[in-house]
Amino acid sequence: MKSITIKGSERESVGKVATKALRNAGMVPCVLYGGDQPVHFAAEAKSFKNLVYTPNVHTVVIELAGAKYEAILQDIQFDPVSDRILHIDFYQLHADKEITMDVPVKVVGSAKGVLAGGVLRLNQRKLKVRALPANLPDFVEANVTNLEMGNKLYITSLETPNFKLLHADNTVVAQVRISRAALKAAQEAAKAEKTAAKGKKK
């Protein structure tokens, strides 16, 4: 999985006054969990742009006064009015410990049912994955090539090298539905066939 580096500085004070001052200065207060004890730090709001405002997922390298921590974003709080970032929680990664995170689904191939006039519906845009940090995928590939009209792609059909998917076996990842136009055409064809059959009987 790709990584983004966030450079910050440890916070000496974590009170409300100090936190407000940080935000007014364009900084975001953060906490890193998962180590021996929580690490409170702050970083410039603009440094989170490629981490937060993207459909992709990344691990994070947090640099604090020479120390480096590999982590993932665990929780984020936004201002309900301005939508600016108020606070971020990170969780430290350890090479020998599995981690769980949501990873986007990437559709691959052209479904046969779509080529026949159907509509592809992606039921799951993200899937919960569990793996060692080194094995975390950038995305989970969903190959829809063999999906005919009305077919569904279940989670059990996905390839999961070096990671686990934490979903029930009957979870539908994608499906091909008959489009309104195709349904109307099928109904009209059936109607015409019925009318023709009645004509022959006469």
Question: Mind explaining what this structure looks like?
Answer:
There is one protein chain. This protein has 202 residues and is α+β, with helices and mostly antiparallel strands. It folds into 2 domains: 3-93, Ribosomal Protein L25, Chain P, CATH 2.40.240.10; 100-179, Ribosomal protein L25, C-terminal domain (RNA Polymerase Alpha Subunit, Chain A, domain 2, Beta Complex). It has helices at 16-24, 49-52, 112-115, 180-201, and strands at 3-10, 27-33, 39-44, 59-64, 67-78, 85-92, 99-108, 118-122, 126-131, 140-143, 152-154, 164-165, 172-178. The protein has a 6-stranded mixed beta barrel. The protein is elongated and about 90 Å long. InterPro entries: Rbsml_bL25/Gln-tRNA_synth_N, Ribosomal_bL25/Gln-tRNA_synth, Ribosomal_bL25_b-dom, Ribosomal_bL25_C, Ribosomal_bL25_long, Ribosomal_L25_dom, Ribosomal_uL5_bac-type.
Which features does this protein show?
202 residues, alpha+beta, Ribosomal Protein L25, Chain P, RNA Polymerase Alpha Subunit, Chain A, domain 2, 2 domains, 4-stranded mixed beta sheet, 13 strands
